[in-house]
């Protein structure tokens, strides 16, 4: 990346840019989803949600949180919920910059472990988190597919 990337705290003003990045990545806009996510992020610890900018334009984001003992996870545990990078800026280290800054912020706020969820067959994302130092954790994700349940 030749241009200077600035990492800063996410604000509600970043909503249109995040919606657009998500639309570019997934193919359809989800404005109500992102509005709710960003409104909730304003109540989280400082710098738990960040954006990356180049020349004043938001090109990526990361949303994190610190546990409040949900699912028995101690309150010194951080969570990376989602990372998004504009396709024009992918594979240029933007996600890594965002993740490193979030990890730094978590550490300054007393977080001792960070969790995230990744689809088992998403090799690119698994490799990304592996290079960031993440390892398989002790918890197991369980799910119940209600479409496979017989009607009672």
Describe it.
This protein has helices at residues 15-26, 31-41, 94-108, 123-131; strands at residues 5-9, 49-54, 57-66, 77-85, 113-116. It has one domain (5-148): Aminopeptidase (3-Layer(aba) Sandwich), CATH 3.40.630.30. The mean pLDDT is 89. 31% of the residues lie in helices and 22% in strands. Strands 1-2-3-4-5 form a 5-stranded mixed beta sheet. The radius of gyration is 16 Å and the shape is globular. Helix 1 crosses helix 2. With 152 residues, the chain is α+β, with helices and mostly antiparallel strands. The longest helix is centred in the middle third of the chain and has 15 residues, at 94-108. It has 4 helices and 5 strands; from the N terminus they run E-H-H-E-E-E-H-E-H.
SSE order and pairing:
Layout: E1 5-9, H1 15-26, H2 31-41, E2 49-54, E3 57-66, E4 77-85, H3 94-108, E5 113-116, H4 123-131
Parallel strand pairs: 4-5
Antiparallel strand pairs: 1-2, 2-3, 3-4
Summarize the structure.
With 152 residues, this protein is an alpha+beta fold. It is built from 4 helices and 5 strands.
């Amino acid at each position: 990346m030749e241009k200077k990337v600035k990492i800063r705290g996410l604000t509600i003003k970043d909503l249109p840019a995040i919606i657009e990045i998500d639309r570019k990545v997934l193919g359809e806009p989800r404005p109500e989803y992102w509005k709710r996510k960003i409104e909730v992020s304003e109540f989280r610890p400082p710098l738990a949600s960040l954006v990356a900018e180049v020349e004043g334009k938001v090109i990526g984001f990361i949303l994190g949180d610190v546990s409040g003992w949900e699912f028995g996870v101690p309150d010194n545990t951080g969570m990376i919920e989602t990372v998004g990078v504009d396709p024009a800026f992918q594979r240029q280290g933007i996600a890594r910059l965002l993740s490193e800054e979030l990890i730094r912020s978590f550490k300054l706020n007393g977080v001792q472990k960070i969790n995230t969820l990744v689809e088992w067959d998403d090799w690119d994302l698994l490799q990304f988190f592996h290079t960031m130092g993440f390892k398989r954790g002790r918890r197991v994700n369980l799910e119940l597919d209600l479409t496979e349940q017989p009607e009672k």
